[in-house]
């Protein structure tokens, strides 16, 4: 029951207002045009008071608190931030972190904590909203860094999606492009908050293919780097990906060397069309079919030097039966791996994925 109307659109910082209830309206308004939204609000509130809508709730992507004045001259524009933290466990960490946010007027909307049994470590992920005027971005980094130093944190990362640059990624693939196509479509839909710097493949593609036309339309370079068993051309690939934040192997069928992984230095995320640790290596769908399994799956994992052995980020499964054949195994696997990979990348970008122990992950 939501209609979208643009109340005003001028250059400048958007604030957002979402009204929900019967006859709802989503108004994307400029900060200067909030007065118009307030007028609309008052009119709807008057109608609400007449029983027009019992559950009118003002929520906005730039949120306001209950009880606070709706007069735009008073209400700040609040934006979301995320912070993840990993350190040795100690009493008072949650209090310290939540106080760090509250002290600057931030409001925590979600807080996940994990302290494993028999393992003296602490993990947390908080989602909060804050006023960037009250808590400037650089000051936020310094405030969280001070806590990280106090607890000797192994990991402390804060991101403000509307201020921080998007993660830069390169996509690597071989012949199959269903995972790449899914990634590109999700990216185009805005569901994958990344900047795709380039696509690299050891297979050439004709210019009139869907993938190549899409990449050309969006100005994303395609690099054909022909590899052989004796020459994986890793130095050239390293040069092409040197400015990226992480890599995505979307069915890249070349095993990356330890030298490459060390030389690159950032995370590499792979999609395996099998339910690891079963059926590692090539042709996992056929391995599963030959094994007579009743569940097939896909696994997204961090890439380590050992093949298909890195920490698992996301897995998805589907039932199969005697009525399936190899073709349906492959088709079902491909459908699963597309979804599994995009979910894993989204979780990674939202700071939900943290290394846990030597070969596991915490995924909030
Ligand atoms: N160091 C790593 N490199 C790669 C990993 C990894 O986990 N660690 N994952 C693979 C993807 N992959 C399965 O998901 C995979 C890739 C390649 C092979 C394989 O047997 N490749 C042959 C060549 C195959 C060909 O040329 O068509 C080989 O390299 O000898 C198995 C599984 C990506 N890289």
UniProtKB/TrEMBL annotation:
A cellular component annotation (GO) from this entry: mitochondrion
Catalytic activity: (6R)-10-formyltetrahydrofolate + H2O = (6S)-5,6,7,8-tetrahydrofolate + formate + H(+)
CDD domains for the chain: ACT_F4HF-DF, FMT_core_Formyl-FH4-Hydrolase_C
InterPro entries tied to this protein: ACT-like_dom_sf, Formyl-FH4-Hydrolase_C, Formyl_transf_N, Formyl_transf_N_sf, PurU, PurU_ACT
UniProt keyword annotations, A-Z: Hydrolase, Mitochondrion, One-carbon metabolism, Photorespiration, Transit peptide
All residue ranges annotated as the Formyl transferase N-terminal domain in the record: 168-345
Top-level taxon of origin: Eukaryota
Principal location: mitochondrion
EC number: 3.5.1.10
Biological process according to GO: 'de novo' IMP biosynthetic process; one-carbon metabolic process; photorespiration; tetrahydrofolate metabolic process
Cell compartments where the protein resides: Mitochondrion
Any one GO molecular-function label of the UniProt entry: formyltetrahydrofolate deformylase activity
UniProt-listed Pfam families: Formyl_trans_N
Main function: Deformylase involved in photorespiration. Prevents excessive accumulation of 5-formyl tetrahydrofolate (THF), a potent inhibitor of the Gly decarboxylase/Ser hydroxymethyltransferase complex.
Family stated for the protein in its record: Belongs to the PurU family.
Protein name: formyltetrahydrofolate deformylase
Organism: Brassica oleracea var. oleracea
Lineage of origin: Eukaryota, Viridiplantae, Streptophyta, Embryophyta, Tracheophyta
């Amino acid at each position: 029951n939501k209609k979208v109307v643009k109340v005003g659109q001028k250059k400048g910082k958007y604030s957002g207002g979402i009204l929900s209830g019967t006859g709802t309206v989503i108004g994307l308004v400029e900060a200067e045009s909030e007065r118009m939204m307030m007028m609309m609000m008052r009119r709807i509130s008057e109608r609400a008071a007449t029983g027009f809508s019992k559950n009118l709730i003002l929520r906005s992507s730039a949120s306001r608190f209950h009880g606070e004045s709706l007069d735009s001259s008073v209400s700040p524009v609040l934006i979301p931030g995320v912070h993840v933290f990993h350190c040795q466990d100690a009493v008072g960490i949650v209090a310290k972190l939540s106080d760090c946010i509250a002290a600057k007027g931030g409001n925590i909307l979600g807080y996940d904590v994990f302290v494993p049994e028999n393992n003296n470590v602490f993990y947390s992920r908080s989602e909060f909203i804050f006023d960037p005027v009250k808590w400037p971005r650089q000051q936020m980094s310094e405030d969280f860094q001070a806590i990280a130093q106090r607890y000797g944190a192994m990991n402390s990362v804060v991101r403000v999606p509307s201020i921080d640059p998007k993660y830069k990624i390169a996509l690597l693939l071989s012949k199959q492009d269903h995972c790449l196509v899914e990634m590109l479509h999700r990216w185009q839909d805005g569901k994958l908050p990344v900047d795709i710097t380039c696509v690299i493949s050891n297979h050439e593609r004709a210019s009139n293919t869907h993938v190549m036309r899409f990449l050309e339309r969006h100005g994303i370079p395609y690099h054909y780097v022909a590899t052989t068993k004796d020459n994986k051309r890793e130095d050239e690939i390293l040069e092409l990906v040197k400015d990226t934040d992480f890599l995505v192997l979307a069915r890249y069928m070349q095993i990356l060397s330890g030298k490459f992984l060390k030389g690159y230095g950032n995370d590499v995320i792979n999609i395996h069309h099998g339910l690891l640790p079963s059926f590692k290596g090539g042709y996992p769908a056929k391995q599963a079919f030959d094994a007579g399994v009743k569940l097939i799956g896909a696994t997204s994992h961090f890439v380590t030097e050992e093949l298909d052995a890195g920490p698992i980020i996301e897995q998805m499964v589907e039932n199969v039966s005697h009525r399936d054949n190899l073709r349906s195994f492959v088709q079902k696997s491909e459908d699963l791996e597309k979804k599994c990979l995009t979910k894993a990348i989204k979780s990674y970008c939202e700071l939900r994925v943290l290394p846990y122990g030597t070969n596991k992950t915490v995924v909030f």
